[in-house]
């Protein structure tokens, strides 16, 4: 039994305990006392959510071939589709889960990023007026938890950037930047306290946007998943 397997079982057990799932006894017994583990492929399509009508954890044991000679991994999925494997992978990659939102609480999100944030301070016409300071992440690392129906979007000029605001309080906690339309710009000052270790601010001359983009060496890569960099 490998150290990696023991660690995976431990983390899975803690997750089930914390969420208070009714399948805890069944699943944990299967993990600890059985050498034949339920398996899962890497795709989300392998998930079995027959007990997941209320977002409960589900085990893929029933989907496994009982005659299979090799069961490789245990995997659980919650209703939002975030696989435990993905969580562990991001943690091992040095990422942490930040949460945040607007002022009134109507818009809430979670984002996986480093605890040390690289924040851009742009001086273009709109960023100056809304005091936009943001860090960039790939879309796959951002999840809007609530408020999709309470967001209004403003665009201008090229209409590539999508400036999204809460309809109630007017706060922009995230948006789609022109520099990185395949990612999100997240306002560091809209994150909940407790997960940010440090913030490095870089001034970006949005008044000369095209020239600044040509000079900047890394900004476009910040919205690319790690495997694409």
UniProtKB/TrEMBL annotation:
InterPro entries: CENP-V-like (IPR052355), CENP-V/GFA (IPR006913), Mss4-like_sf (IPR011057). Gene3D superfamilies: 2.170.150.70. Pfam families: GFA. GO terms for molecular function: carbon-sulfur lyase activity; metal ion binding. Keywords: Metal-binding, Zinc. Residues 98-210 form the CENP-V/GFA domain. The keyword RNA-binding does not apply. Belongs to the Gfa family. This is Centromere protein V. It comes from Cyprinus carpio (Common carp). The lineage of its organism: Eukaryota, Metazoa, Chordata, Craniata, Vertebrata.
């Amino acid at each position: 039994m490998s150290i990696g397997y023991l660690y995976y079982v431990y983390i899975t057990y803690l997750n089930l305990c914390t969420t208070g799932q009714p399948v805890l006894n069944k699943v944990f017994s299967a993990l600890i006392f059985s050498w034949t583990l339920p398996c899962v492929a890497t795709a989300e399509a392998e998930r079995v959510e027959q007990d997941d009508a209320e977002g409960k954890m589900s085990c893929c044991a029933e989907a496994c071939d009982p005659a299979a000679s090799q069961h490789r991994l245990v995997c659980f999925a919650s209703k939002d589709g975030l696989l435990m494997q993905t969580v562990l992978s991001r943690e091992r990659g040095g990422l942490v889960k930040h949460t945040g939102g607007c002022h009134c609480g109507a818009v809430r999100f979670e984002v996986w990023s480093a605890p040390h944030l690289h924040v851009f301070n742009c001086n273009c016409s709109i960023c100056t007026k809304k005091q936009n300071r943001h860090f960039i992440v790939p879309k796959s690392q951002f999840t809007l938890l609530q408020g999709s129906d309470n967001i209004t979007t403003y665009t201008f000029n090229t209409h590539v950037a999508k400036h999204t605001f809460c309809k109630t309080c007017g706060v922009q906690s995230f948006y789609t930047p022109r520099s990185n339309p395949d990612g999100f710009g997240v306002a560091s000052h809209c994150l909940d306290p407790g997960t940010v270790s440090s913030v490095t601010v870089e001034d970006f001359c949005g008044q000369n946007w095209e020239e600044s983009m040509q000079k900047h060496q890394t900004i476009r890569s910040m919205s690319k998943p790690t495997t694409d960099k």
